[in-house]
Amino acid sequence: MIRVVLVDDQAVVRMGFRVLLEEHGDVDVVGEASGGREAVEVVRRLAPDVVCMDLRMADGDGIAATREIVASRSGGTPAVLVVTTFDLDEDVFGALEAGADGFLLKDCEPEELLEAVRRLAAGEGLVDRSVTRRVIREFSRRRAPRAASAPPPELTPREAEIVRLLARGMSNAEIARELFVETSTVKSHLTRAMTKIGARDRVQTVIWAYRTGLAEDS
């Protein structure tokens, strides 16, 4: 069972998300919060697998809450899914810097929300391919490139290929099918690549890929 906490200052939005997620049987909404500070407390108390986080709330800051949740998590959980009405907004860039694991727009299809929660629970971010790729590409463009005094570590051809496919928004399973290998093989290569480039998660790995030009052809 995937344990989820919903964070949004609109009760009707939280109710709608709860209904959509819980009707499938493998998701349990264990808590809700209407603001950033409350969200941090609820997450600390309930230890969910995934947090669905709004960014702009009347009572609390979703970016600050995301940063605090990410900084205090262990074992990669909870994953933070930003669910927002803004796709190329400064708040989204702030959430990316804070360590958010994936993005969705509030007008997404119900099955997209469910898939996003499932993918994040499985340790796979970048859940909205169109939004996330545009956000990361723009984020990377706005930030300074890697310093020339610290050249990026060399990746093996297979590691580079997997990072390139990751930048397209592909899951581990999709990459495995693309390359005709086992999912465990993809995970191993990706873990080694992340260690080499000093990325803490998949989002940072894709940012690195855009900044270094590895993802330009993705």
From TrEMBL:
A single BP term in Gene Ontology: phosphorelay signal transduction system
Domain HTH luxR-type residue range list: 148-213
Sections of the chain in a coiled coil: none
Domain Response regulatory, first and last residues per copy: 3-121
Modified residues (4-aspartylphosphate): 54
GO MF term (any one): DNA binding
Keywords: DNA-binding, Phosphoprotein, Transcription, Transcription regulation
Database matches in Pfam families: GerE, Response_reg
PANTHER family, alphabetized: TRANSCRIPTIONAL REGULATORY PROTEIN NARL-RELATED (PTHR43214:SF24), TWO-COMPONENT RESPONSE REGULATOR (PTHR43214)
Name used for this protein in its record: Transcriptional regulator
Lineage: Bacteria, Bacillati, Actinomycetota, Actinomycetes, Micrococcales
